[in-house]
């Protein structure tokens, strides 16, 4: 039996979705033009009027918004309605520069929570489930989003927030949690912590996990699925468009369905801004079609993805996005070579190492240095220096063949890399400090 939270819209024929988008975009552009002077200026500069937008295809005529615009307009410059109509503020998890603050009316909260509810139901959730939410609560959207979605589905919700792993495990076991929601790195850590306490994967009642907010690989998915004895589903979103639930995975696990009745997605060439055809890799751009408080049009996410309209066996008709393959801005260029952290993670997991690693890039005598620290599991750990050195050499060779550049590998003792309760800090790029 297939489960949907809102079957009619989730499985609507393509023409119906386009019809909805056509109707919503016309209203939304008018709403933004009338209410957001910052965006009205951008449209005026480009010579576009609301009347020029008659169908969703006309969206190409609109100007883009970037994170720099959000910084410039901080805090109220992109507000789409009177503050008295807003009921919530959320913010990005970033620690550098000015944070993005997003505003929500009650209508915005409802549609966001519905998107999260769709994700939970797609992962097999019903009102019989106990959903343990260990994304952070507060300004970060992870906790509030999944919490709201879980309520909508009628699940018993455990609002744990992040951290205090001892208590997470106790509640998970005592209260029979069946669905776990957190970052993939924290899920891996919980799996590791359960094993350390002598629990086997079959000892917990978990059946599914809904993991997102940071990049993770297929290899990491399999490792988490094994350690927790669950099926692991990806979920994507960003504060600027609402939070988690902009897209989510179904049982096919081949990409995330974008909730196209609320968010219109485009893929562009990050250099030229040109819209690319389906199947091409580029920067993901989102337009919220019906948000009131923070109605961003053509927002450049910097996430590099591919869209696919291939028919999905789950019956959902909404377009699928690939896992983000990196960001147009987090791609590292080391000694002239483009390197994505996800490539390094894929090699580590393929070679049988833990996903606990840290990449350190620096510059010495005008040359880039590239070091990767990887934690050994207790079984792999050895006192024999020659053993460790031989492993490091093998791993360096595997990295070189994947990346085209060989990092200096450092295999370190178990538990020496700091664990994260939220998003893992994978890259320390010290070169930026010198710029
Ligand atoms: O991370 C919202 C979220 C919470 C998504 C919980 C999923 C689960 P921000 O802090 O604004 O919002 O960060 C958004 O995180 O542009 C991506 O680069 C990255 N990201 C989010 N989900 C995924 C994912 C939340 N599933 C930024 N895979 C986005 C890879 C992801 N990267």
Total count of helical runs of at least 4 residues: 12
Mean pLDDT: 93
CATH topology of the largest domain: Rossmann fold
Number of domains: 2
Index terms:
alpha/beta; globular; Rossmann fold; binds 5'-O-[hydroxy(phenylacetyl)phosphoryl]adenosine; 20 strands; 435 residues; GMP Synthetase, Chain A, domain 3
Explain what the structure shows.
Helix content is 32%, strand content 23%. With 435 residues, it is of the alpha/beta class. The protein folds into two domains: 1-324, ANL, N-terminal domain (Rossmann fold), CATH 3.40.50; 332-434, GMP Synthetase, Chain A, domain 3, CATH 3.30.300.30. It has a nine-stranded mixed sheet. Strands 19-18-17-20 form a four-stranded mixed sheet. It has a three-stranded antiparallel sheet with strand order 10-11-12, with no helix packed on it. Helix 2 crosses helix 3 (37-46) and helix 9 crosses helix 10. The radius of gyration is 22 Å and the shape is globular. The model has no long low-confidence stretch (mean pLDDT 93). 5'-O-[hydroxy(phenylacetyl)phosphoryl]adenosine is lined by residues 92-93, 135, 141-142, 212-215, 234-239, 243-244, 301, 303, 323-324, 327.
Task: Give the secondary structure arrangement, pairings included.
Elements: H1 7-10, H2 14-35, H3 37-46, H4 67-73, E1 86-91, E2 101-105, H5 106-122, E3 130-133, H6 142-153, E4 156-159, H7 165-174, E5 179-182, H8 184-196, E6 208-212, H9 218-228, E7 231-238, E8 243-249, E9 256-258, E10 263-268, E11 282-288, E12 299-305, E13 307-308, E14 320-321, E15 332-334, E16 337-339, H10 341-350, E17 357-364, E18 367-375, H11 385-403, E19 408-412, E20 427-429, H12 431-434
Parallel strand pairs: 3-4, 3-5, 5-6, 6-7, 17-20, 18-19
Antiparallel strand pairs: 1-2, 7-8, 8-9, 9-14, 10-11, 11-12, 13-14, 15-16, 17-18
Helix pairs in contact: 2-3, 5-6, 8-9, 9-10, 10-11
The protein binds 5'-O-[hydroxy(phenylacetyl)phosphoryl]adenosine.
